[in-house]
Amino acid sequence: MMWDTAAGQCIAESAGAQVLTVDGEPLHYQRENLLNPFFVVSLPR
After folding, report:
1. Which residues, including other chains, have CB under 8 Å from residue 36's CB and lie 6 or more apart?
2. Looking at the chain, which terminus has fewer C-beta neighbours within 10 angstroms, N or C?
């Protein structure tokens, strides 16, 4: 669910990481579906 990952995303992005869907799009929370799509967290090169 969105609220399960929002804080972790903030921490990861504050540390310089990227949180992206498997399609390479940023993970967004302004949507009707509360379930998160599959996503990855990675540091840029």
Report:
1. 1, 2, 4, 5, 27
2. C
Residue 11 to residue 1: CA distance in whole angstroms: 17
Q: What is the pLDDT of residues 4-44, one digit of tens each?
A: 999 999 999 999 999 999 999 999 888 788 899 999 999 98
Q: Say what the pTM is.
A: 0.80
Q: Where are the chain's structural domains?
A: 2-42
Q: What is the spatial distance between Cα 31 and Cα 24, in angstroms, rounded to a whole number?
A: 17
Q: How far apart are CA 36 and CA 38, in angstroms?
A: 6
